[in-house]
Amino acid sequence: MSESVAVLLHHRVTVESVPELEARPIRYDRAVFEAFRALEIDVRKKAGLADGVYGINVFNLAFGANNNGRRGVLTPEPLDAGEAKGYRDLFAGAYSLYRNRRGHRDIEHDPAQAIRLLLLASALFDELDQLDVDDSTLDQ
């Protein structure tokens, strides 16, 4: 991977995905899978969710979907209801499409598409890093 691309990746994406890009043969599908798997893990931890919560439920609970209209612990302020839903949809949609497909079937990537998806995962990690969480609201 070129250094110019590597500096754009969030450190979690670098840790989880770059080894797959350095493998021979290069495993683009695994690199994308690992980036979005790490996103699920970090959202679960930041939201204070139990280890038994996984998949799309992590994002629904963390960002408030299917929560009787209540905001999730990670829903940023000051978003109105539509923006909050869009924020949840951004995380949940990216995870559902790009991680889940790779968990259930082989996906062939061209290198450019894989790098774009790693940059998307990096952008979501950057969003997650910017969220302030009131620890008193977390389920420990």
The count of β-strands is 0
Query: Any idea what the radius of gyration is?
Result: 15 Å
Mean pLDDT: 84
> What is the overall shape?
elongated
Number of helices: 6
Poorly predicted regions are: 136-140
Name the structural class: mainly alpha
Query: How much of the polypeptide forms β-strand, as a percent range?
Result: under 5%
Instruction: Give the termini separation.
Output: 39 Å
SSE string, helices as H and strands as E: HHHHHH
Task: Give the total of domains.
Answer: 1
Helical fraction:
55-70%
Question: What kind of sheet is the major sheet?
Answer: none
Describe the structure.
The protein has six helices and no strands. It is mostly helical. It has one domain (3-137). Helix 3 (28-47) packs parallel to helix 4 (56-63), helix 3 (28-47) packs across helix 5 (81-104) and helix 3 runs parallel beside helix 6. The model is unreliable at 136-140 (pLDDT under 50).
Explain the layout of strands and helices.
Elements: H1 3-6, H2 11-22, H3 28-47, H4 56-63, H5 81-104, H6 111-130
Helix pairs in contact: 2-3, 2-6, 3-4, 3-5, 3-6, 4-5
Question: Quick gist of this model?
Answer:
The chain is an all-alpha fold and 140 residues long. It contains six helices and no strands.
Which short descriptors sum up this protein?
140 residues; mainly alpha; 6 helices; 0% strand
